[in-house]
Specification:
The structure holds two protein chains of two kinds. Chain A is an all-alpha fold. Helix content of chain A is about 60%, strand content about 0%. Chain A contains 17 helices and four strands. The chains are: A mainly alpha, B alpha+beta.
């Protein structure tokens, strides 16, 4: 017997008529979702181009890159990147990717578009906050990009912005003055946007579910966005004040993160009383949950996509939800594994090591549930399911390298090496991107009313899958050999033999990056000229496929909100529709898979 | 196409594992007294992670191979034991594995961080600053003079800010740009950051430790093999980070004594 939700409170707003309210300052969660997706697309293209420039520079350090001086005359005189410009591009690459791609696309973009529909609501409860959430995020993006145009360029301190380098001001090096202030301002603004978004996601899930939609009847994607928003609410609420304190150290003469007696350029610095480790604790208290903010939506999306293409529910809906919840909770207890050799008390390192090792248990459960659910399935191979399967492969690979980094004794050898870079690119970079691709190929027909080209989608998968392994597996080998990350050139003697590996990676990165242009072409071409999509092209069950039109109307479900009669994934049944029954269909069918 | 995906996953998994099995790119040979447990821990973790990696990828490939060609009329089968089996498997296999790694790893970590340095360990102070390491030896009196940050001057080659005119302990201190240590003698490394965060990483010595401004930290280790190695910075410290290195020479006690005398004469 399912607990029935109370009659939902509906966030009424009439369909807009003017261009600005309809397309720019829209209150419609679907438009806002697409705006987030567009922002992520711009950010990922920028981040990818920056990674190309970095990779070319790393492989052929003094080789001029034609046209680079157009980006920055001082950063690339004669088209050859300066050491500081490499670090500046690296910092911008990471910041764009982590914040404006991996957080916005799987969480804010798809979540905005589909969470209200999947719970059976007309919109989110606070549409104005929702609109603000996107535009605040967009302002954060503009502030970050503005740092390219200040006199000494963006900050070079990496996306982690460790103090005191980030807090001492321009004396620390190029970009460490105004560049850091803009970076910290951008991230603080971004946090405001995500806090507003998280509030909306949580209230949508808790208060806006339609009649019959109990929590257990929510699709796994909705659960993933809900869990992620709970993480976002607490993680961004810590990063935002940390960034404000960092700004104050620059502009107000405070010393939150700078201790006394520092000497830079033979000058005794005026700061005193601050703590450099304080920044690391604050940053990583956000930073590790951020890994899960990037990946948990992907887990939900991939589960949702796979179930539809396996024509069966997961082995256990609830175990997956409990596991994602466990990941979220544990993510706050493991952050110190980033700080094993930071000077933190060595007993604390052990205290952070055990939860880090334990977090592999819910991760393993998730993987085993996916694998066990594939057993006996009727697996359809299409672009969406290929990327979902690729996600699992990448998640496994990125996950097992976590065994190493969870142990302080091994971290002595691997900390700050390319092993770490390989690990997080696999698990929160490539895997999360594969989740975004799976979601895009799956939901594009609903979002735009047209199908994406499947052949191009499959070519995109093959090149991306093989390419991602060609790029990121060698990173692990480099790390084992002691190749330190964040070096703009390899002048250390023992790293010389590793340069050919970097050249291989660069070629793979350029080719794999170029393959993404196929996706971009497919996206744009299909948007305007793709085959028209039916309301439910994948024979799926959840509420987004029950909308009266495709794309859904302004209020999602027309005159009447749907009523939910089933668990989210009633596949492998015999119904009048075929082997599935939709959540909003009153048709009663017996199912051995009815768990909730 | 499903079968092709399956074959590709298996090929990628095997090809990825080959350089690891062959140690094509691997950790530098250990020259430290404390490093063996770290290397053992690495090998054990590699074996367990490697088996998990290969087994998971092969099972994924196997199921894609077998079930991507299912016909619509085929019945949907459930994995024997269902989700409970998976949960138990995760707890028993992975839980035991990670617990074992965690428990045994404590020993390797404790060797480095929990044991106190021997009373006769040779103290060496290292200061990290943008973008160089400097080393200080206490001289015959065995004591370091205090640091005066306001006296630090690259121009006057007073890298540590020592005051030889007023601090008797500083008079015989020996400051060098290269680190030399005697083989098989414990070193007590006293770490000081001059400006921003840096790190002290010598892969062969199995040590990596950040310099934390405002916090003086220490390390102790014993090198067991004569040779010349590189000390590199692993904490992003500014535009010259990539080039911040120093050499570590491990030498016999006699050679070290003569080296120290020569350096003392240059002060």
């Amino acid at each position: 017997m399912h607990e029935m939700s109370p009659q939902p409170h509906v966030a009424h707003h009439v369909p807009p008529t003017g261009f600005i309210r309809k397309h720019i300052f829209s209150l419609d969660h679907k438009v806002i979702g697409k705006q987030y997706y567009g922002l992520a697309l711009v950010a990922v293209l920028m981040g990818m181009v920056l990674s190309w420039l970095m990779r070319i520079h790393l492989a052929w350090t003094n080789y001029p890159i034609p046209g680079l001086h157009w980006l920055s005359n001082t950063g690339a005189p004669g088209n050859v990147m300066t050491p500081e410009y490499y670090l500046q591009l690296m910092t911008m690459h990471a910041t764009l990717m982590v914040f404006f791609v991996l957080t916005t696309a799987p969480f804010a973009a798809f979540g905005n578009y589909f969470l209200p529909i999947q719970v059976g609501a007309e919109d989110m409860p606070f549409p104005h906050f929702n609109m603000m959430s996107f535009w605040v995020t967009f302002v954060g993006f503009l502030v970050l990009v503005a740092s390219f145009f200040v006199s000494d360029g963006p900050t070079l301190g990496g996306w982690t912005q460790y103090a005191p380098l980030s807090a001492v001001g321009a004396v620390g090096g190029p970009g460490e003055g105004m560049g850091v202030v803009l970076w910290a301002s951008s991230i603080a603004i971004f946090c405001v946007g995500q806090l507003l978004g998280s509030l909306n996601f949580i209230t949508t899930t808790l208060d806006m579910r339609t009649r019959g939609m109990s929590m257990w009847r929510l699709p796994l994607s909705a659960w993933a966005w809900f869990i992620t928003s709970c993480m976002g609410l607490t993680a961004f609420a810590v990063l935002m004040p940390a960034c404000i304190l960092l700004i104050l150290d620059h502009v107000a003469g405070t010393s939150f993160f700078v201790p006394g007696n520092l000497v830079i350029n033979d000058q005794l610095q005026p700061h005193s009383g601050g703590s450099t480790l304080l920044w690391q604790h604050l940053f990583w208290f956000f930073g590790h949950p951020e890994v899960y903010i990037a990946i948990v939506p992907g887990m939900g999306i991939v589960s949702h996509v796979l179930i539809t293409n396996m024509r069966r529910p997961m082995l256990s809906h609830r175990v997956l939800i409990y596991s994602m919840g466990a990941l979220a909770v544990l993510s706050y207890m493991v952050y110190g594994h980033h700080m094993f050799v930071s000077g933190m008390n060595p007993v604390s390192s052990l205290a952070f090591s055990f939860p880090t090792l334990i977090i592999t248990i819910p991760s393993t459960i998730v993987v085993l549930i996916w694998l066990g659910s594939l057993y006996g399935a009727k697996l359809r191979i299409n672009a969406a399911s290929l990327f979902a399967l690729g996600f699992i492969s990448m998640f496994i690979t990125g996950g097992v390298s976590g065994f190493f980094l969870a142990q302080p004794s091994i971290d002595i050898m691997l900390h700050a090496t390319y092993f770490v870079v390989g690990h997080f690119h696999m698990v929160m970079g490539v895997a999360a991107m594969f989740g975004i691709f799976a979601g895009t190929y799956f939901w594009f027909p609903k979002m735009f009313g047209r199908m994406m080209n499947e052949t191009l989608g499959k070519v995109h998968f093959w090149l991306s899958f093989v390419g991602a392994y060609a790029i990121f597996m060698p990173f692990h080998y480099l790390g084992l050999a002691g190749n330190v990350r964040r070096y703009q050139a390899f002048v250390i003697d023992y790293m010389q033999p590793l340069i050919p590996v970097h050249r291989f990676i660069t070629v793979a990165a350029l080719a794999t990056g170029a393959a993404q242009l196929i996706f971009l072409y497919n996206l744009i071409h299909s948007r305007f000229w793709g085959q028209p999509a039916s309301d439910n092209p994948w024979q799926a069950t959840s509420l987004e496929w029950s909308t009266p039109t495709t794309p859904p109307p302004h209020n999602n479900f027309g005159d009447k909100l749907p009523e939910v009669y089933h668990d989210p994934y009633q596949y492998g049944v015999k119904s009048s529709m075929g082997d599935y029954v939709m959540q909003a269909s009153p048709e009663q069918v017996p199912s051995e898979h009815d768990e909730a | 196409m499903g079968k092709f995906v399956a074959v590709t996953i298996v090929v990628i998994a095997i090809v990825s594992a080959i350089p690891i099995l062959r140690h094509t790119w691997w950790m530098a040979p250990d020259i430290s007294q404390h490093g063996a447990p770290i290397d053992e821990q690495m090998s054990e973790t590699m074996a367990e992670a490697g088996i998990s990696f290969l087994a998971s990828q092969i099972i994924l490939a196997l199921f894609i191979w077998k079930f991507s060609g299912s016909r619509p009329s085929d019945p949907i089968k459930s994995f024997p034991g269902g989700a409970k089996t998976m949960v138990w498997a995760a707890f028993l296999l992975v839980g035991t594995e990670v617990l074992a790694l965690g428990v045994f790893g404590v020993k390797a970590w404790a060797n480095v961080y929990f044991a106190a340095p021997a009373a006769n360990a040779l103290p060496v102070q290292v200061q990290a600053g943008q973008f160089a390491f400097y080393f200080r030896y206490p001289g015959p009196d065995g004591s370091f003079g205090p640091l005066h940050p306001d006296l630090i001057s690259e121009a006057n080659a007073n890298f540590f800010g020592i005051d030889v005119d007023h601090d008797p302990d500083s008079k015989d201190d020996i400051v060098t740009a290269e680190m030399a240590i005697p083989v098989n003698r414990e070193i007590h490394l006293l770490m000081h950051a001059k400006d921003v965060g840096h790190s002290f990483f010598v892969p062969e010595l199995r040590v990596q430790q950040d310099f934390v401004p405002g916090l003086d930290l220490s390390l102790h280790f014993t090198a067991t093999k004569i040779g010349r190695y590189e000390i590199v910075c692993t904490q992003l410290c500014g535009l010259g980070h990539y080039n911040m290195k120093a050499y570590l020479s491990v030498m016999s006690q006699e050679d070290f004594d003569s080296w120290l005398k020569k350096e003392a004469a240059l002060q």
